[in-house]
Amino acid sequence: MEDTLRSLQKLKDAGLSYQPLLVVPFKDVVACKDDESLRVLQSIYAIDMYYAAVFGKKRQYLDTRRFIDTEIELRLPVNDDALEPVDPAVVRAFVQDLENLNKRDALLAAMGKRAEQLFKMAETDPASLDHIVDAFYGFLLEGTYLAFSLARDEKISPELTALFKSGINRISRRPFHSFEC
Fold first, then answer.
1. Among 180, 179, 81, 73, which residue's Cα sits nearest to residue 131?
2. How far is it, in rounded angstroms, from Cα 71 to Cα 161?
3. Can you tell me whether residue 12 is helix, strand or coil?
4. pLDDT, tens digit, 9 for 90 and up, residues 58-92
5. Residue partners of 175: CB distance under 8 A and separation at least 6
6. Average pLDDT over residues 112-123
7. Is 56 left (phi over 0), alpha (psi -120 to 50) or beta?
């Protein structure tokens, strides 16, 4: 999640703007979805939520958070009892000042602990592993869609070039090409 938020921040730093038509709408999207699709959508909406946060769009952030909580997470069979909850005070502090990097970092640290717990659970719990895989897929889909959609009609600038080169460099450091044991 930390890489995702920092990447979204880089979109803003490169001079790109918030485009509300790029986020997934709430209406008529989740009712017909199975658990796998809901897990993917949960992370897609999470990207949209943090995209709003990076650009200081508090209402969109809160609306998306509420939608995830009420329309997706309530339908997913997740063993949240084993995960340490994120301190509501940390979340409130972040929501009050979305563009405060210290408050964002505090939220990321809390979410990072929760993610580590989920990864540990995934070692023995197939449902947790499914959740992680589907979340990664959703993050990848929506993050790539937002970045390319925002940059598509922009004038090529040094900042935009640096943004995409940094993304390529990050991906090339990942060991996706090596499947050896």
1. 73
2. 38
3. helix
4. 999 999 999 998 999 888 876 666 777 888 899 89
5. none
6. 87
7. left
